[in-house]
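Duplicate of #3305? Posting structure anyway:
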């Protein structure tokens, strides 16, 4: 697992905004610390060195509890 970054905010359309430490592949599955799936990376934007990532969550009922939490992605082989 690679640490992607921290959830900074929730956008107007319900996606999670993560300040990433690196640029992941679009379509990768994001996970929490316990390896539970959070959602799919749908958009990468912002500066090249520290981009922002938009994640479409699987479960929209727990969005507020995700703010400030760490997000991970599986190692790509």
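Output from current build:
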């Amino acid at each position: 697992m690679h640490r992607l970054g921290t959830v900074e905010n929730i956008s107007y359309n319900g996606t999670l905004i993560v300040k990433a430490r690196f640029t992941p592949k679009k379509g990768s599955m994001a996970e929490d610390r316990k390896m539970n799936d959070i959602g799919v990376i749908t958009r990468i934007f912002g500066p090249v060195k520290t981009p922002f990532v938009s994640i479409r969550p699987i479960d929209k009922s727990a969005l507020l509890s995700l703010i400030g939490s760490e997000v991970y992605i599986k190692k790509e082989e």
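Confirmed duplicate; merging threads. The first strand starts at residue 2 and ends at 10. Helices lie at 63-66.
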